[in-house]
Design goal:
InterPro entries: Citrate_synth-like_lrg_a-sub, Citrate_synth-like_sm_a-sub, Citrate_synthase, Citrate_synthase_AS, Citrate_synthase_bac-typ, Citrate_synthase_sf. By secondary structure, the protein is an all-alpha fold. The chain has two domains: about 210 residues, Citrate Synthase, domain 1 (Orthogonal Bundle); about 100 residues, Cytochrome p450-Terp, domain 2, CATH 1.10.230. About 55% of the residues lie in helices and about 5% in strands. It is built from 16 helices and three strands. It has a three-stranded antiparallel β-sheet with strand order 1-2-3. Strand 1 and strand 2 form a beta hairpin. Helix 5 packs antiparallel against helix 6 and helix 6 packs antiparallel against helix 16. The protein starts with about 20 loop residues before the first strand and ends in a 25-residue tail after the last helix. The protein binds carboxymethyl coenzyme *A.
Length: about 375
């Protein structure tokens, strides 16, 4: 059978495989995760329940959840070589995402590469340990061992600071982690699926995905989005600063989306989670953020009319993570701590039923060049 060949730059609008994991509906501004509208599950579930849901296509019972949490908790420790790598990376002040990628590669040492489900557990369990350990090394602080009696989210915050976090911070972090765990064929998930589609191993898939997530057009946006608010500083500065950026042809981080042409539904869930942190003295900062958002939307309409550029998840990611006290350098790594749940689910799904992902390229080069020996070349 002759297949129609058609070029779609950036694969825009192309359906590359089937999934039961999540459906971002760009026209209606709705995100369904394994059957649940995002706003009906993200603010209530624990992160462990969300991962279980993606891996097993149903929520766990209480007994299953307890077992699953214990299985993850016992896989939090890193292979010793991972710590050596993190120390070497910290000595060079490598970005956290790069350190995460380097250390994640060592997880093959503690799991049988052929056991994709076990490797998925190791990856999800170990990411917070890698990120928190590296962060403490960067600060010149002693490492904090994971605590098996704390939840995934609480343990991450504990390993960063040494303090058991309060319930509000844990709830806000879980809401964030649940909100960004999966999102159709975003670039990093697609990367994981391409790797899994070759029947390469699970750790290879997540390591590749980290590389894709790092870029500023994908998971690298929330830090710069908050930096823009800091740079603006006061409401009067919003208009001139943002206008100057657009005049220079810069992109505003935290705005625009390939799929959502109406408001990103994740932004609303995160805004609701963030609000509680910005009361009292911090209310002014929240008001500034909302003002910056509105000015940005107005100016995007002026400079990019008709492109339907709306606030995306990264803008409110910045607000939630700032609200619970994480530094901007940890925003993208914390995104990875969540999204690894989705990457592994997609890899498992693809192992079960997918074909090798192998699109075509439109060749635009020469076709009739003749070989010239090196001695005769100009
Ligand atoms: N600021 C200014 N202009 C923009 C922006 C922006 N944030 N986003 C898109 N545009 C313009 C772009 O310059 C282009 O203009 P023109 O038609 O004159 O060439 C037009 O809008 C369409 O943009 P595009 O690059 O063709 O759209 P895309 O679907 O390829 O890109 C995007 C989507 C998210 C990469 C882009 O909107 C962007 O760069 N946003 C800023 C970075 C960001 O916030 N990334 C996080 C995305 S959400 C989470 C995730 O996926 O990880």
């Amino acid at each position: 059978m002759e297949l129609e060949t058609i070029m779609r730059p950036g694969l825009q609008g192309v359906i590359a495989a089937e999934t039961r994991l999540s459906r971002p509906d760009g026209q209606r501004g709705v995100l369904v995760i394994a059957g649940y509208w995002l706003e009906r599950i993200a603010p209530y579930a624990t992160f462990e329940e969300m991962v279980y849901l993606l891996w097993h296509d149903r929520l766990p019972t209480a007994v299953e959840l307890a077992t699953f949490k214990a299985e993850l908790a016992e896989k939090r420790a890193l292979p010793p070589i991972a710590e050596d790598i993190l120390r070497a990376a910290a000595a060079q002040k490598q970005p956290v995402m790069d350190a995460l990628r380097m250390a994640a590669g060592t997880l093959n040492l503690v799991v049988d590469a052929a056991d994709a489900q076990a490797a998925a557990q190791v990856a999800v369990a170990a990411f917070p340990t890698i990120v928190a350990s590296y962060w403490r090394l960067l600060q010149g602080e002693a490492l904090i061992a994971p605590r098996a009696d704390l939840s995934h989210a609480a343990n991450y915050l504990y390993m960063l600071t040494g303090d058991v976090p309060d319930a509000d911070a844990v709830r806000a972090l879980e809401t964030y982690l649940n909100t960004v765990i999966d999102h159709g064929f975003n670039a990093s998930t697609f990367t994981a699926r391409v790797i899994a589609s070759t029947q390469s191993d699970m750790i290879a898939a997540v390591v590749g995905a980290i590389g894709a997530l790092k870029g500023p057009l994908h998971g690298g946006a929330p830090g710069p989005a908050l930096d823009m608010v800091f740079e603006i500083g006061t409401p009067e500065n919003a208009e001139p600063v943002i206008r100057a950026k657009l005049e220079r042809g810069e992109r505003l981080m935290g705005f625009g989306h390939r799929v959502y042409k109406v408001r990103d539904p994740r932004a609303d869930v995160l805004n609701a989670a963030a609000e509680r942190f910005f009361v009292g003295e911090r209310a002014e900062f929240y008001a500034l953020v909302r003002h910056v958002e509105q000015v940005a939307l107005d100016l995007l309409e002026e400079y990019k009319p008709g492109r339907s550029l709306k606030t995306n998840v990264e803008f409110y990611t910045a607000l939630v993570l700032h609200g619970i006290g994480l530094p901007t350098d940890l925003f993208s790594p914390t995104f990875a701590i969540s999204r690894v749940g989705g990457w592994t689910a997609h890899a498992l799904e693809h192992y079960a039923s997918g074909r090798i992902i192998r699109p075509l390229a439109q060749y635009t080069g020469e076709t009739e060049r003749r070989w010239v020996p090196i001695t005769e070349r100009d």
